[in-house]
Write a structure and sequence with these properties.
heterotrimer; A mainly alpha; B alpha/beta; C mainly alpha; A: mainly alpha; 10 helices; 72% helix; globular; C: mainly alpha; two-stranded antiparallel ribbon; 24 helices; 2% strand
């Protein structure tokens, strides 16, 4: 990849990701509604919501929340831009976890009961998904011989052939990252959960808008990692990647609509067991055949 | 002016309702009525809500709670009283612990009568509320554009009131003074 | 370099000051004199380290061997030192009726004396060896160690006046041990002679023992003897290793040992190098408080904070790491290397699990120290240039950050009256300076641009390169748990509170030391890419004989970018958010917030205070649950592997 392509791709991510992410969320809500035999909101509903949020009065519990959320968003954008610029995948994941730390700070600083419990659960979620995320990077390193995403998508065949276990583990933890049931323990897109709005309880107006946009960036980043499993030298693999991304997204929606929320203990156990036995066994096999 | 009425988020507060209206409010979100078509989301969080739905009359214990929740909602905001109890106090009106309808505590904009209020009328109330929400939001935008805050507006209004009162008083005094002057003459 | 006797100065000067410290009695006037001398000598030590570095760089920054002959006097002084150590340990173990412990001191020291007098070893080998690694260690000991002593001057005053009035004030004794310890540490990292290393090694062990037992309370005495026997056990294996090697080959130098091991790898004579390397590595594991020997470090937390900072985190435990780094080229892809790597990786994982369950600040620091040392030990055990690179950075960051945190938690305890993390709720508003520095210290241990990131990156990469799947797992799970316990602590510090401010009784000298550490922390983070190029790569070249670039340039550029981004974004957005007009609202408590965010109306209509607490999972991850099984596993691995290594060598 030439430096120009890298910059163009990164800029594309920064500019387009919110739109694509918002559109996908709109589809998500529409599909969810159809799964429940409802008509559902218009596809552009997420954009209406965010526009409204930015129009509302700026109300805060603690002033610091805003700058922490802005840092959270900036680091998330950096993460995605790094991925699309073809740089080191493992570094991307480390920056990702720092971004999540800022979200935790933004919640912890309010000293509000619901937010704080939500934030603690967010930390547990981070602890649950981090091994799988790091192992995925490790898997790419073994399979493609490099952490650089530019090299990973330049392989001769789709790496999912070598790393189905990693793929499964990654899709599994994506349920946590996309805040879908059964793992939406820190906050959810639906009301009436036991923690009110969990980690976002004290965010309103502008702050919530920033949080939503960051989630769109994050989702596109995660789907970008999913695409890494598919992309190869063949240009047609782009089409295949898009199909796989849409399929994965659909599966997440299906899981989200067909399951109930779990306790955090169960979530932690399940995630780690899946990480060990799916990604771990895959890694073992890869190391043996290398 | 942005079209904010496509995204009215609700906060549902149950005062001392018999739960009839609450069930009807929830029924609005079910597949049969599907209020989400209007962009409605039932948030549980005043910080994120635009429209406050109150069911049931307000009792002495609930009064500070409703006030606090109303205060936590960022402007522009609309209050809808759902069901006859929230509108006037209903059959509980004369109970020792009931203050009356929701408007005894917070300013109510839309009244949805019924015992229990039917989902159709609740949705109608929500539609009226979101139009009002749009209007207030436009006012809010204009205010922000003018670089003012709600405190400024409030102060201006108070000054205006005070001015009016002062004017009226002066006029009154004038009117009173004139005959006395005549008399003294 | 012999023209400037800077090396003898570094070793002997602290010893002389130690004697001066002892003879100044404890009373208010004399205390002032002692404090002044302590300050001056700390500055002198720092200056000496600076001169050493300058002279050495002036000489071309090449490895230098010094003092190879005419050293009979020094050798005899070393013998005398060993006998004194032996006498001290024997006396105290008889005094406290732990008779068997004296054997652990008598046996190796007698053997070492015999070795030196037996004529088996050549006497004209260089005693001192200075290279990048030694200078780096000197800088760590000189700067951090001296700052800790400066901190100790103020801290011990508060310790005896506010916290522990019942403890006998023996500050002269305390400072004597601190200075002896500093001298011994310099000696250890600068020596090349194995017999000298043995002396300084034992000295640091005994100093640690004496510092832990400072208060003479029953629990302190019990814990100090645990420190003693575990470290002396390491000393025994170290001495055995030295005797085996020196008696067989006649070489009395550490560099000779590693060279021999690399030279003879794969030949029938391999065993001669394998056994000493394994035994010394075992000693290093005890010194670095790896499982199953971690309990001494936990017990050592009863000591006053400066000694905790000096011994348990910043310097002494690094002696083990230093030894392992020296041996790393010899351990690469050997059974010893695998053993060390496994024990280190396992300790990293297990200790980080246990740290989650701790709410006592100092215990979290202790467990995280063990855990991070584990990662460094694992780096050394894998023994590739990349992992040593990671290990060096971990060591630098860990030394600064932990020394900062220990001092900070100690100072916070003096002011706040507690070191429990739950009591540090909203500390940023109550004790702003200490909390801010604590924040920097913790961020240095867990957040992205501070060294930890890139070190983990390198460790993960090389563990995959080595096809070491167990290591990979331990690193990924360990890093997840590590960020959990640090981040929840950070959250406690920044939470908003209405509690009144606490009177900050931190002394100016404590503040100076703490703020220098904080500045150092940020400077290190910013300068890290430069440091790699200028210092660490030549260091690896010396250790491994190759000057390969370990970290790709692109990654380094990326790192610079991330560092800039990480500091710029929050600061800029903070400046902007301050200007925004915001409406302050109460936090959401279902509408029953009593009006100041710190309480709610309960079902009886009374005001109840809001208390927020972190998750600890005490009944799953507590020390009691995990420590014994983990010790058992590592002990079993150590015994089996040591048996295999030693048995396989014959």
């Amino acid at each position: 990849m030439s430096i120009n392509t890298r910059i163009i791709l990164a800029v594309c991510f920064i500019v387009l990701a919110p739109f694509v992410g918002g559109f996908l969320e709109g589809c998500d809500r529409k599909i969810s509604a159809r799964m429940q035999r409802r008509i559902g909101p218009p596809v552009l509903q997420p954009f209406y919501d965010v526009t409204k949020l930015f129009k509302k009065q700026y109300v805060v519990v603690n002033r610091s929340v805003h700058f922490l959320l802005v840092s959270y968003m900036s680091l998330m954008i950096l993460t995605g831009a790094m991925l699309f610029a073809g740089t080191d995948l493992l570094m991307c994941f480390f920056v990702l976890s720092t971004a999540a730390t800022f979200l935790y700070f933004a919640a912890a600083v309010t000293n509000s009961p619901y937010t704080t419990i939500g934030a603690q659960r967010e930390l547990i979620q981070m602890m649950a998904y981090e091994p799988a995320v790091l192992l995925t990077a490790a898997g790419f390193y073994v399979a493609a011989g490099s952490f650089n995403t530019a090299d990973i998508i330049n392989s001769d065949y789709s790496l999912i052939i070598k790393m189905p276990g990693f793929f499964f583990a990654f899709v599994f933890i994506m349920t946590i990252k996309m805040r879908k049931a059964p793992f939406d323990i820190s906050t959810s897109h639906h009301a009436h959960q036991e923690l009110v709005k969990g980690i976002t309880t004290e965010m309103s107006g502008k702050n919530l808008g920033i949080f939503n946009i960051t989630e769109w960036y994050e989702n596109i980043f995660l789907l970008g990692v999913v695409a890494l499993f598919i992309l190869n030298k063949n240009p047609w693999s782009i089409l295949a990647a898009v199909i796989v991304i849409l399929l994965v997204y659909f599966v997440e929606i299906l899981i989200g609509n067909s399951s109930a929320r779990m306790k955090w203990e169960t979530m932690l156990k399940m995630t780690w067991i899946v990480t060990l036995f799916s990604a771990g066994v895959n890694l073992l096999v890869l190391m043996v055949i290398k | 002016m942005a079209n904010v009425k496509r995204s009215p988020w609700l906060l549902h507060y149950d005062g001392s309702s018999c739960n009839g209206c609450d069930i009807e409010v929830l029924a609005c979100m079910t597949p049969v009525y599907d209020a989400e078509r209007l962009g409605v989301e039932n948030t549980g969080d005043p910080m994120q809500a635009d429209i406050l739905l109150i069911t049931g009359g307000i009792n002495a214990q609930a009064e500070p709670v409703v006030k606090q929740i109303y205060d936590q909602m960022p402007r522009p905001k609309v209050v809808v009283a759902v069901g006859i109890c929230a509108c006037t106090g209903g059959v509980f009106k004369d109970a020792y612990n009931i203050k009356g309808g929701a408007d005894t505590v917070v300013p109510v904009d839309i009244y949805v009568p019924g015992c229990a209020a039917r989902p159709q009328s609740i949705i109608d109330g929500i539609i009226q509320a979101r139009d009002l929400f749009q209007k207030r939001s436009d006012e809010h935008d204009a205010m922000v554009k003018a670089g003012k805050t709600y405190e400024d507006i409030k102060r201006e209004r108070e000054e205006e009131e005070a001015w009016k009162v002062a004017e009226a008083k002066a006029e009154e005094e004038n009117r009173e003074e004139t005959p006395s002057n005549v008399r003294s003459n | 370099m012999t023209s400037v006797p800077i090396v003898p100065f570094l070793i002997i000067f602290p010893m002389i000051i130690a004697f001066v410290m002892l003879i100044i009695p404890v009373n208010p006037t004399a205390n002032r004199v002692r404090n002044a001398i302590a300050y001056l000598s700390c500055i002198a030590v720092m200056a000496a380290v600076g001169i050493l570095t300058a002279v050495w760089i002036e000489g071309g920054a090449q490895p230098v061997s010094l003092y190879s002959d005419g050293m009979e006097l020094a050798d005899n002084a070393a013998l005398l030192g060993k006998i004194i150590l032996m006498a001290v340990v024997t006396f105290l173990s008889f005094k406290y009726r732990k008779y068997w412990i004296c054997i652990l001191s008598i046996a190796p020291n007698i053997a070492a004396v015999w070795l030196q007098k037996s004529g088996l070893i050549t006497l004209d080998t260089p005693r001192i060896y200075i290279d990048h690694l030694a200078v780096l260690m000197c800088l760590i000991i000189g700067i951090i160690g001296s700052l800790i002593v400066i901190f100790a001057v103020g801290y011990m005053h508060g310790y005896h006046h506010y916290l522990h009035k019942r403890v006998a004030d023996r500050r002269n004794y305390f400072f004597m041990i601190l200075f002896i310890f500093l001298g011994a540490m310099f000696g250890l990292v600068l020596s090349d002679s194995l017999t000298w290393i043995q002396l300084f090694w034992e000295t640091t062990s005994v100093c640690a023992f004496l510092l832990v037992g400072y208060t003479r309370e029953p629990v302190a005495v019990r814990n100090s003897f645990r420190v003693l026997w575990m470290n002396l056990l390491g000393g025994c294996t170290l001495t055995t290793g030295i005797i085996v090697f020196a008696a067989a080959t006649g070489v009395n130098s550490l560099s000779g040992l590693t060279a021999f091991a690399e030279l003879k790898a794969g030949t029938p004579e391999e065993g001669l190098a394998v056994i000493p390397v394994a035994l010394i590595a075992f000693a290093a594991l005890t010194k670095s408080a790896q499982l199953p020997f971690s309990t001494w470090l936990l017990g050592a937390m009863v000591a006053p904070t400066p000694s905790s900072a000096l011994i348990d985190s910043a310097t002494m435990v690094k002696a083990g790491i230093y030894m392992l780094f020296r041996l790393a080229p010899a351990m690469h892809e050997t059974a010893t290397g695998n053993m060390v790597a496994f024990v280190g990786g396992f300790t990293f994982l297990a200790a980080s699990f246990i740290a989650i369950a701790q709410s006592d600040g100092k215990k979290v620091l202790a467990m995280s120290t063990i855990s991070n040392l584990g990662l460094m030990v694992a780096c050394a055990g894998m023994g590739t240039p990349e992992t040593i690179w990671a290990g060096i950075f971990l060591m630098i960051f860990h030394a600064v950050s932990k020394s900062l945190l220990f001092q900070d938690v100690g100072a916070t305890e003096n002011s706040l009256g507690s070191r429990d993390i739950e009591n540090m709720h909203g500390l940023l508003y109550r004790l702003p300076f200490l909390a801010f520095c604590m924040f920097i210290g913790i961020a240095g241990m867990c957040m992205v641009p501070f060294g930890m990131l890139i070190s983990k990156w390198a460790v993960l990469r090389s563990s995959i390169d080595e096809n070491d799947i167990i290591m990979t797992f331990m690193v990924v799970f360990g890093s997840a748990t590590t960020s959990f316990y640090w981040t929840k602590w950070l959250g406690k510090l920044i939470a908003q509170t209405n509690e009144p401010k606490v009177k900050d009784i931190t002394k100016p000298n404590e503040k100076i030391s703490i703020s220098i550490h904080a500045v150092l922390m940020i400077a290190l983070c910013v300068l890290m890419p430069l440091l790699t190029k200028v210092y660490v790569e030549p260091l690896l070249g010396e250790l491994f004989g190759t000057t390969a670039q370990v970290i790709p340039t692109t990654v380094l550029y990326l790192l610079v970018f991330i560092i800039v981004f990480f500091f710029a974004v929050p600061i800029i957005s903070y400046a902007f958010s301050k200007k925004m007009h915001a409406n302050q609202k109460l936090s959401y408590m279902s509408g029953i917030n009593t009006g100041s965010n710190d309480g709610f109306t309960d079902s009886f209509g009374n005001e109840t205070k809001l208390q927020l607490s972190n998750y600890y999972f005490k009944n799953v991850l507590g020390i009691r649950k995990l420590m014994i099984p983990c010790q058992f596993i590592t002990l079993a691995v150590l015994i089996v592997m040591m048996a295999m290594i030693i048995g396989g060598a014959f």
